[in-house]
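Schema walk-through. Below, the input block comes first and the output block second. Nothing else is stored per chain. Lengths vary across the set, and this one has 362 residues.
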Amino acid sequence: MKKLSKPTKLQLYSFVASMPLIDILLNYIMFDQRIFHDYKIWLISFPLIYLIGIGSWRTHILISNFTKVKYPGIKQTKTRILIMALCIIPFMALSVTLIFFIYNSVEILGYQFSFSDFKSGLLVGFSVNLIFETLFEAEYMLEKYKESVYEKQTFHLLSVAQEFDALKNQVNPHFLFNCFNTLSSLISEDKQKAELFLDELSKVYRYLLRNNEDGMSTVGKEIKFIESYFKLLQTRHGDAVKLNIQIDKQYEPYLLPSLSLQLLVENVVKHNILSKNDPQVIDIFTTAGNKLVVNNNLRRRSVKAPSNKVGLENIKAKYLLLNQPGFHVIEDEKNFTVVLPLIWNNTGSGILNEQKKMINKN
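--- output ---
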């Protein structure tokens, strides 16, 4: 009940602003020019009508708010307006009638009832109610529209966050599974290398767990990670694979999806022939326009390695979910190049923080 009787700021301000004017108009209708020279009208009639107006306004708010609670939806607007009209217009007429009845019955300040006065009073009441009820309904509709837009954005961001996390979680088992396959091969081929590989793997995976929680990582951290990961590759393949890194320091704080570089480097090793005589060279560098490029010389294996499509598609899907354009894959006879757009830290972290907040609420 307390909630139903509580006015909005607009309802309160409109009453404070309009009631003195309504009071003056009703007194002018009943007493005409007397209001300009009879101080008793201001001492007696003005406060009396104001008090009646407060009671009428409070009841009016109760009816209006009850209707909005009962029929809150945007699609229920016609029903809400119809019910409010059927309730408020008769109540407004009753309030005006009460004022004239009291003044005529008690003969306050000598007033005698006039039907033309009564009609004018009804016209004032109807006009004021029409103006302010239209204003109140417009405010209510605007709030409902904002809520609707916010809910849609919330559901969209929640969906994006869940998809993004699904992609992120897809990478960890994929990475670990491939490393275990390599370790299994090394155990049968070279136990000493297997031990070195396992030692590096433990360091790399600890780093991965610390830095992959949010799904995004700075360029600086990704480069450190890929350098650690490359040691794993060298343990397995020796000088058959080379890595050149040239990163402008200004781009180190920028963001990109975690493990993007690892997935791309892994794809190079997986899908190309590795030879110590003609090593596979991987170049990672930054360019103007906030771009990070991963390029390798192309020597496709004659027999394609089995693939679960986690790599390129995973990275592409993440950029789409982040609404970040600029991801490109370029391939010719000699080179395979992937261009990764770098995200300015405030923008990237803001998106993910909003997503994380929504997931945590749910």
